[in-house]
Amino acid sequence: MVQSSVLGFPRMGVNRDLKKATEAYWGGKISRDDLVAEGKRLRLAHWKIQKDAGVDIIPSNDFAFYDQVLDHIQLFNAIPERYSKHGLDSLDEYFAMGRGHQKDGVDVPSLEMVKWFDSNYHYVKPTLQDNQEFKLAADPKPVREFLEAKEAGIITRPVILGPVSFLALGKADRNQTVDPISLLEKLLPVYVELLEKLKAAGAETVQIDEPVLVFDLRKEVKDAFKPAYAKLSGDKLPKLLLATYFGDIVHNIDVLADTQSLYGIHVDLVRNPEQLETVIGALGSEQVFSAGVVNGRNIWKTNFQKAIETVETAIQKLGKDRVIVATSSSLLHVPHTLDSEKKLDSEVRDWFSFAVQKTSEVAIIAKAVTEGPASVREALEANAKSVQARASSKRTNNEAVKKRQSEITPELHSRKSAFPERYAQQKEHLKLPLFPTTTIGSFPQTSEIRVQRNKFTKGDITAEQYEKFIEKEIEEVIKIQDELDLDVYVHGEPERNDMVQYFGERLDGYVFTTHAWVQSYGSRCVRPPIIVGDISRPAPMSVKESKFAASVSKKPMKGMLTGPITCLRWSFPRDDVHQSVQAQQLALALRDEVVDLEAGGIYVIQVDEPALREGLPLRAGRERENYLSWAVDSFKLSTAGVKDSTQIHSHFCYSEFQDFFHAIAALDADVLSIENSKSDAKLLQVFVDKEYPRHIGPGVYDIHSPRVPSEQEIKDRIEEMLQYLKPEQLWINPDCGLKTRQWKETKAALTNMVNAAKFFRAKHSS
Ligand SMILES: CN1c2c(nc(N)[nH]c2=O)NC[C@@H]1CNc1ccc(C(=O)N[C@@H](CCC(=O)N[C@@H](CCC(=O)N[C@@H](CCC(=O)O)C(=O)O)C(=O)O)C(=O)O)cc1
Ligand SMILES: N[C@@H](CCS)C(=O)O
Ligand SMILES: [Zn+2]
């Protein structure tokens, strides 16, 4: 029979229960035992959902209190000494690595956190030493959770991150030079020990994720696969299903061919359906094929007919017992359940499928191909009806938007003059000091702000009352910026629930949800709005707040927008038109907003594009260049409508900009702010090598942690930056917005930042 499987289930729970419990634990409101019990309750609930849906292969160890890669760091005892030396409780040590720890005399920043492939999820980077040793944790989490499920009557397939990906996704610690992959020999015995324990506990198969196979791999990494998997086989070990996702593995298929120790291979057929033939062709005579046909990254209902055709192709070659119907990736990237959405318009609601619904989808497809379509006739008919209704719906088309797109000319993408001319005018107009200080936009989103917004959404306060409240908040942040003596102010974004959702809620062509949360990092979640049709701007979206802020401020006010690519990528996009079309529609809407801001007296405008890097196709080549071309064009289209004297900023919370530097440069933004505080300042060398002419604010401190950086730390960082950037090029700002922080630490950190900037201003003016 064809089995159904899920690669991973979202762990937050139906009401973001894990977020609430974790934050309550951090805030000292619940005990460690309470948090651990809540984790257990959630795991059991999620296993039961999948069992009740009829899923045959249910994952375990997909749960994590903070991040699944961080779990492996602790599992293998790859814990840098700066965390292990304090004798913290293991859960606190784990959170210290995830989010830093500044309490009871312990002061340690978090490990670096970066994007998980091309998703909006972030993982904690394994950070390794030259003399790194590994040791399996005493009570290994994958075994513990397998036994927990077993006790509840559910035999699961544990998920672990494979050794090659664990190392290849890691890095050498600061001042260390080790190439992580060179540590493979030392790591493999720990995997063997873990797998033996899993087998002894009763796990027959294990899902071992090796997602790095979708990248172009360095020779050292590629060559690591065969010897690694040769060692991970034997009678005492479970059967391994190697899983990949978010791309194709055809270019690396030679490392899997002849790897007979693997029981099977999972590939993402939503992203790359064309790899089916090659991967099946490379399988050994008994290996199984796990067909990822239910999208783990988007919320559209699966087209059953298409999915069944794909699975049937595999069955014809391999037979029913060697094919598994699966989600394309873990369902971590989609919201929990559509059942929570009580306010969605029924027409579009019928087009969607969230995690709970997707578990049923894999089960239905598997049944259809095992027992024949008649066994699930009703479900197939209902699905065909939804798919057809969406394809013919009038909601998806807006002729006026299409007409405007057809009239776009190349001139609309360019500023009036080149940077030197623009800068001369901006200097004259804005009169900023050397080393200008600014922030990235958001100030702390206090619980009072969220409570007021919640009251407004529920109708407990009027629009007028809410507006007054927001104005009071804006006045307050202006006063604080006066006290801090910053140079370019922001209005603080108090009116925004999220930098993408806020705009999604104000644009036609979007729908938004009330409960469709997706984990972004740690306890932080986002509620991506959904693009269902052509996008347009019915009215200005941010002008009122920015104008108000400027009216009560004595320094230049920076208007704050989210760029077209970030709006696109952090929404659930349409899958029926190319993403470049959606980006261009967003760019036109934002262009109107930028021009309206300028007309309203806002002469510094920041258009954030932190997701530009995330959208970069994972492999080098033509696809990447194509993407960069339309992505850069969209940004330029959105910003080029202003006068030379108006300063355009853009912001990126990424440090790994080496491979797309030319695209950042091509944006032609007057000022760039980039996340940089946790990376080596020598990454800034690229700006020197490429003779980057415009201005840059590499972040001087990490905003993900409550830890307050000292003035000296910031000065040291600026000193390092000055080895690469000219004083007149350098802006001083944090890594990113401050919405997740508390006011106390925000004021303390910004005071130190402004003092550090003033120190260099004095030094370079004399
Ligand atoms: C910059 N980042 C962002 C990414 N993606 C986005 N879509 N947005 C981003 O900002 N990706 C990369 C990074 C990831 N970083 C973050 C940072 C912070 C968050 C975050 O703070 N998320 C919040 C939720 C934000 C939100 O939508 N808030 C709403 C709803 C608030 C709420 O929970 N309300 C309560 C009721 C009110 C109460 O009583 O408190 C409720 O609905 O039950 C709002 O402010 O109105 C989080 O809390 O996780 C995410 C990614
Ligand atoms: N302006 C946004 C950018 C986040 S990437 C903020 O400050 O939160
Ligand atoms: Zn940012």
TrEMBL record:
Question: Which organism is the protein's source?
Answer: Trichodelitschia bisporula
Could you say which enzyme class this protein belongs to?
Answer: transferase
Q: Which of this chain's residues are annotated to bind 5-methyltetrahydropteroyltri-L-glutamate?
A: 19, 120, 524-525, 570
UniProt cofactor(s): Zn(2+)
Q: Where does L-homocysteine bind?
A: 440-442, 608
Domain Cobalamin-independent methionine synthase MetE C-terminal/archaeal, first and last residues per copy: 435-758
Instruction: State the PANTHER family in the record.
Output: 5-METHYLTETRAHYDROPTEROYLTRIGLUTAMATE--HOMOCYSTEINE METHYLTRANSFERASE
GO MF annotation terms: 5-methyltetrahydropteroyltriglutamate-homocysteine S-methyltransferase activity; zinc ion binding
Annotated binding of Zn(2+) 2, by residue:
662
What protein name is recorded for this chain?
5-methyltetrahydropteroyltriglutamate--homocysteine S-methyltransferase
Give the start-end ranges of region Disordered: 387-417
Q: Which UniProt keywords apply?
A: Amino-acid biosynthesis, Metal-binding, Methionine biosynthesis, Methyltransferase, Transferase, Zinc
> Which pathway is this protein engaged in?
Amino-acid biosynthesis; L-methionine biosynthesis via de novo pathway; L-methionine from L-homocysteine (MetE route): step 1/1
**What the protein does?**
Catalyzes the transfer of a methyl group from 5-methyltetrahydrofolate to homocysteine resulting in methionine formation.
Which ranges carry the Cobalamin-independent methionine synthase MetE N-terminal domain? 4-317
Matching CDD domains: CIMS_C_terminal_like (cd03311), CIMS_N_terminal_like (cd03312)
Which of this chain's residues are annotated to bind Zn(2+) 1?
651, 653, 675, 736
